Amino acid sequence: MIGxxxxxxxxxxxxxxxxxxxxxxxGATVSAPLPLPxxxxxxxxxxxxxxxxxxxxxLGDASPIAKFLERNPDGGVHHVCYEVADxxxxxxxxxxxxxxxxxxxxxxxxxxxxxxxxxxxKDFCGTLVEIEQA
Length: 134
Description:
nine-stranded mixed beta sheet, 2,3-Dihydroxybiphenyl 1,2-Dioxygenase, domain 1, about 40% strand
């Protein structure tokens, strides 16, 4: 059901500094910051030959990742994102298998302007999982 790894998301306390580490130190191609008010984050994508790294920073105090950063002031891995061919079919199959979809269970457009859903980390070995329609 899951396809390729789309990205690994890392919450960072300083987006400019983190982007510079990937750009200068690691020599990666790094996108410009993209504020996503509907998601409460600003994101930067680091392009790799086989996947992406998504650097996330809270956009305001109500950001869903603000508490993560409070608990992890140096930042850290937040979630992994896998591609699926049909997000609704994937959701239905996951729910039938006992997985919990976060939120209202309806996909909304993510940073790539494609439908996404998040799955409860307790159902996936302690890892928050995002699925994105390919």
